Amino acid sequence: MRLEGLSVGYGARAVQRDLDLEIRRGDIFVIMGGSGCGKSTLMRAMTGLLAPLAGRILFDDESFWEASPAARERRIRRHGVMYQGGALWSSMTLEENVALPLQQYTDLGPRQVCELVDYKLALVGLGGCGALYPAEISGGMRKRAGVARAMALDPEVLFFDEPSAGLDPLSACLLDELIVELKHSLGATMVVVTHDLASIFAIADEAVFLDAERGTMLTTGDPRWLRDHAADARVRAFLRRGAA
After folding, report:
1. Where is each ABC transporter domain found (predicted)?
2. Integer Cα distance of 204 and 121 in angstroms
3. For residue range 62-74, what is the model confidence (pLDDT) as tens digits?
């Protein structure tokens, strides 16, 4: 995946501009930065929810937003998204939530759908929980159920919007471990929006730092290297905050 001269925002106002970066296949790529810098806005453009103001987003050298609506729809079906709050349907059980994309976009029969749903829930540690409703489980379990639904159609790219938001440290750590496990077991590329330092250092292969003041990216690289060697002091300060 590549971004070329990308600017994103709302109306005539650019939140982030002139973004140029590449995400390698199979990596966990983190979009990081302070609150209000445009992390989620960028993810909305990458997932097909917000047209960019300028520039291109390319998947396998094909321009996503310059493609026909039908081609964009086919590409979107190759993505999975875990939204910040889980975005589960409260009136549906976990198994019904995970089954919905399979029922909508495949020709699988009820038995095959049921088998796949059980498998996806087991992958995220929720085996045997399919009959529960979102209100009956913890926040961490809802996040995991959101991951299971994002994986329903075996996507090539998984997007996570602030996956650890609202979780206690232990639940956040377990979710980070799950993301890394899924990377190795599925081989999918993962794009994660977060400002949580523990998550950044636990999961990221590469990261980009978005700056709210300048409205553009300051650097990309391994966050562990950037913490100690980034040329811009703002990047080092962000990655060292809270350190003694």
Report:
1. 1-239
2. 24
3. 999 999 999 999 8
Q: Going by CATH, does the domain composed of 2-240 fall within 3.40.50.300?
A: yes
The predicted-structure confidence for 10-24, as pLDDT tens digits, reads as follows 988 999 999 999 999
19/45 Cα distance (integer angstroms): 12
Question: In the chain, where are the structural domains located?
Answer: 2-240
Q: E strand or H helix at 234, and its extent?
A: helix 233-240
Q: How many CA atoms lie within 13 A of 207 on its CB side?
A: 29
- 163, 117 in Cβ contact below 8 A? no
Cβ-contact 204, 226 below 8 angstroms = no
6 contacts 55 by C-beta, under 8 angstroms: yes
pLDDT of residue 244: 46
d(CA 52, CA 56): 8
Contacts of residue 101, defined as CB under 8 A and 6 or more positions apart, other chains included, come to 149, 152, 153
Are residues 235 and 32 in contact, defined by beta-carbon separation less than 8 angstroms? Answer: no
pTM, entire model = 0.91
Break the chain down into helix, strand, coil percent, rounded to 5: 40, 25, 35
Query: Which has the closest alpha carbon to 179: 207, 205, 152?
Result: 205
